Amino acid sequence: MFIKDMNWMQVEEYLSKDDRIIVPLGSTEQHAYLSLCTDLILAESISLEAAEPLGVPVMPGVAFGMTPYFSAYPGTVSLKPATYFALIKDILDSLQLQGFRRILLVNGHGGNSPVVAEIQEWLKSRDEMQVKIHNWWAAPKTMAAVTKIDPIASHASWMENFPITRIEGVTMPTVQKPMINLKTNKLLSAKQVREYCGDGNYGGDYQKDDLSMEKIWQIGVLETREALENDWI
Q1: Exposure of 231 by Cβ count < 10 A (0-12 exposed, 13-18 middle, 19+ buried)?
Q2: Which tens digits make up the pLDDT trace of 159-170?
Q3: Which residues pair with 21 in a beta bridge?
Q4: Looking at residue 138, what is its pLDDT?
Q5: What is the DSSP string of 24-93?
């Protein structure tokens, strides 16, 4: 259930029988020929499909994350760590106040990962709360499915090229881009990152067949649903 399709009375009724909720975490950043909102689109969509048979509500995705290295690409928006951490903690505070006790953060952007330490700090005095962060694309089964198809998969490459992240009328390159050096990339300024990465694909093919992508997607949905169902205290 998308929370935008519910009113507050329905949420209150839901809380009388369940205390789980999903908050998708995304980013608005360059993804080469794909949508600038790729991470948000995928995190929201996989959350909705995973939660649907369980009747668990899904909050609107957090559209902005931490992505300073892509700041030289037009359309990218990056939050400072202090801003992002405060935003996530304010969201958790609100959900706790209303009675949610098990919160699954479905993350679609690797740059958001440092928030884990802040969540642990937030949890240390809240015995009744449980918060998990699920990096859906990097979860074991999903990543195994990706590498089985092609181990050369990276940011803005084929592994993020789903029908829902494509831009109408945009044609993908048909060549395989050589992988960048990730260690080198981390040493560069935002301007240098753009010069080094070019179109923004870190390396690999730009697109695979839709059947292969659907297989990856379904594994991702099931793995996200497992995170929502299991391993709570």
Answers
A1: exposed
A2: 999 999 999 999
A3: 103
A4: 97
A5: EE--B--BTTB-TTHHHHHHHHHHHHHHGGGT--BPPPB--B--GGGTTSTT-BB--HHHHHHHHHHHHH
DSSP state, residue 159: G
- The pTM of the full predicted model, rounded to 2 decimals, is 0.97
b/e map 42-78, b = 16+ CB within 10 Å = bbbbbbbbbbeeeebbbbebbbbbbbbbbbbbeebeb
The residue type of 46 is: I
Burial class (CB in 10 A: 0-12, 13-18, 19+), 91: middle
Instruction: Give the Cα separation of 181 and 192 in Å (integer).
Output: 13
Is residue 201 a contact partner of residue 156, using CB atoms and an 8 Å limit? yes
Strand order in the sheet with 102-107: 20-25, 102-107, 130-135
pLDDT at res. 39: 98
CB atoms within 10 A of CB 119: 19
pLDDT tens digits along 10-48 = 999 999 999 999 999 999 999 999 999 999 999 999 999
Q: Is 96 strand, coil or helix?
A: helix
- Taking each helix axis as running N to C, give the angle between helix 210-229 and helix 140-149, from 0 to 180 degrees, rounded to the nearest 10: 170
Which two tokens mark 62?
Answer: 């957090």
The residues pairing with 58 across neighbouring beta strands, listed in sequence order, are 2, 22
